[in-house]
Amino acid sequence: MALSLPSGPGWRLPRWPGWSRLPREGRDTLFLLGVIAWTVLPHASHLPAWCTALTALVLLWRAALAVGNGPLPGRSLLVAVLAVAAGLTFMSYRTLLGKEPGVTMAVVLMALKTLELRARRDAFVVFFLGFFLVLTHFLYSQSIGVAAAMLVSVWGLLTALVLSHMPVGQPSLKQAALLAGRTALLGAPIMLLLFLLFPRIGPLWGVPKDGLAATGLSDRMRMGSVAEIAQDDRIALRLRFDGPAPAPESLYFRGPVLARFDGIEWRVLVPRFPQRLQPQAELRTSGRTLAYEMTVEPLRLPTLPLLETSPAAPSIEGYRLRQTPDLQWLTDRPMIDRLRLRAEANLRFEHGPKEPVLGLQDYLELPPGFNPRTLEWAAALRRDPAFANAGPSELAQRVMQHIRQGGYTYTLAPGEYGRHAVDEFWFDRKEGFCEHFAAAFVVVMRALDVPARIVTGYQGADPVPVDGYVIVRQSAAHAWAEYWQAGRGWVRADPTAAVAPDRISRSLRLAPPPGLVAGAIDAMNPELLQRLREGWEALNNRWNQWVLNYSRGQQLEVLKDLGFDAPDWQTLAKLLVTALSSLALLGAAWAWWDRHRIDPWTRQPEALLRTLRR
């Protein structure tokens, strides 16, 4: 690959002569620069702006030199630019160590190295940096799109590498690309073999944590916070049931339970009483047990949103789980990885103490000085002779009736609420999302001297399964309530069902207006956009299940499918060594045969060989 440029006394911006008229040096250099730009481009979203601008400027400068056959800059200028880049990197990250500073400097080095393409060894350094940058993308994302883009980058770098080994003539890019593709395909069986059989060990460096959900469930809630999550249409959970899927209204996935209220924000309760005086789980199930498989996308909380209620802890490799008295399943750390697990649930259950305990007083607390009109409304209801001796169930039904008949509106955009948010919602504006109804219900029930709390999580699922999986999106984020009743324990109450029953029974969720492209597709063919999304999500799920989540257990399952009765790690290692050794012997035999097949000297008669040697 001839990449050297003759020096000259002067140079100016060249004119584009046309691709076919470019000399080979210029053509090969422009191709390599295009491959580098394609490789660096996905990094632009998380690189500092100055790094993206500097890289683009250097690549354009190098392209102009290649077209105009201009001289390369001196090494002193490159060292100065590198020093400035190192200083800017330190200013951006306050360090030169770590993932982000390392990737930033690698991109800068790649760009600057293109200004030193004076010999073939310089091109090899660029190839090495290019392959290294391909790997760095998977520290940020391992999606199908990134994998496909990097596959193109690898093909382009291999094509440039082939061109560098063709110093004579002017081979076409098509010829080099085909040779690079055939060479890569020869290595594909080995790559597949290593993927299937190489032991799954922990990563040598951090796996991508940038997939950690930017939105999702939280351990605190304000008026409007769940509505923000509900505008996110990304997938949160995928489920596949062993039998028929339950009805949408029974799909409640339990997340953080919030019982501490300061007048503005709801948080996880910090009990005031000793553990022995706290209300315990005391779970009581009935009916059939529902088995299901779940894939959980990365969350920003250590709360695992299992289907209500899952009495037994699922097994998750690398995590320890425990169940709290309020039926939350907690992991020992936030779930920054995509998790795949199997669990069982009983949709018919009761939980909590049947008799009063002192710790229930925590679920009656209301902050002084907030929402006086709501408290007065509850006091007036208690003074009503019809409800003077009413129990929690009758009071809850009365509050639900008020919501159904009070002219309330279920909306994603209720606007901002002030200091007395519950008062404003309950009496004035009467517009809100699920957290507005749940918060108001709990405040009223507590004012009626009934212990109550808020439960957050997900409710419902997409109406049509995709590739056999029931899809639960972030837009299914939901808040409901629980109140305590003697003889039963905690009882679920969903005030949203009183004002928007279709939201619960049919999973008809509110959605923000679609974007320009999605709106245009939907206007032309309402079903096309849905089919496209379902197809993409099914493909993405297969990628997640069989590539990203390919685990040790699946490796052993593959060996069982191959006929091994009780495979273990020794079986896996022996099979891998045997397969690699066999492939190595086959490769050596093919190389020996191919050498004698194509070597012209071996095809000459012995007499002619002696003549030629003389």
Question: Rg to the nearest angstrom?
Answer: 33 Å
Mean pLDDT: 82
Question: In this structure, how is the largest beta sheet organized?
Answer: 4 strands, antiparallel
Strand order of the largest sheet: 11-7-2-16
How many helical elements?
A: 19
Number of E strands: 18
How would you portray this structure in words?
The protein is α+β, with helices and mostly antiparallel strands and 614 residues long. It is 45% helix and 13% strand. It has 19 helices and 18 strands. It has helices at 24-40, 49-68, 75-93, 99-113, 120-137, 144-164, 173-197, 225-229, 372-383, 392-405, 421-429, 434-447, 496-499, 501-505, 516-524, 526-548, 552-561, 569-598, 606-613; strands at 220-221, 235-241, 252-258, 260-261, 266-267, 284-286, 290-296, 303-304, 321-323, 329-331, 339-345, 348-350, 409-410, 431-432, 452-459, 470-473, 477-485, 489-493. It has a four-stranded antiparallel β-sheet, with no helix packed on it. Strand 4 (260-261) and strand 5 (266-267) form a beta hairpin. The longest helix has 30 residues, at 569-598. The model is unreliable at 1-11, 203-207 and 209-215 (pLDDT under 50).
Which helices and strands occur, and which strands form pairs?
Layout: H1 24-40, H2 49-68, H3 75-93, H4 99-113, H5 120-137, H6 144-164, H7 173-197, E1 220-221, H8 225-229, E2 235-241, E3 252-258, E4 260-261, E5 266-267, E6 284-286, E7 290-296, E8 303-304, E9 321-323, E10 329-331, E11 339-345, E12 348-350, H9 372-383, H10 392-405, E13 409-410, H11 421-429, E14 431-432, H12 434-447, E15 452-459, E16 470-473, E17 477-485, E18 489-493, H13 496-499, H14 501-505, H15 516-524, H16 526-548, H17 552-561, H18 569-598, H19 606-613
Parallel strand pairs: 13-14
Antiparallel strand pairs: 1-5, 2-7, 2-16, 3-15, 4-5, 6-12, 7-11, 8-10, 9-10, 15-17, 17-18
